[in-house]
Amino acid sequence: MRVKDVMSAQIVTASPNDTAQSAARLMLETEVGALPVEVPGIGAIVGIITDRDIVVSVLAKGLSTSTGVAEFMTVSPEVCNENDETAAVATRMRDLAVRRLVVVNDDRRVVGIVSLVDIPAEPAMEGVK
Question: Where along the chain do its domains lie?
Fold first, then answer.
């Protein structure tokens, strides 16, 4: 099975210049918990933010909701290709201790996000000792 078969197709991204509040609103409106951060006009993925990042890195620290995304995003997030095998991606996510990866196509454009919970568990191998 390939990542493109299980990912959440997503074309909504945040800009490094967006505020925490505008990113949170975008997450609410699009019903997502994470946004890739993309340089406008260039399309390069420079980071990722999650709803948890906003709570822990902005609100819990008493920062303003006008804090820029660039100040709390995870820089240079791990990505996978939409044609990668899900089993390999799941292993990689576990090794990296992350729950989500940005999914890109062969042109390195964002096409979605895959979460560990999106990937079906491998069936138990019968007779393996």
Answer: 3-118
| H or E segment and range at residue 24 | helix 20-30
Distance (Å, rounded) from C-alpha 110 to C-alpha 36? 8
According to DSSP, the β-strands at 110-115 and 100-104 are antiparallel
The C-alpha atoms of residue 42 and residue 53 are separated, in whole angstroms, by 24
Tell me how far apart the alpha carbons of residues 81 and 59 are, in angstroms, rounded to a whole number.
33
What does CATH list as the number for 3-118? 3.10.580.10
pLDDT tens digits, residue range 61-114? 999 999 999 999 999 888 999 999 999 999 999 999 998 999 999 988 889 999
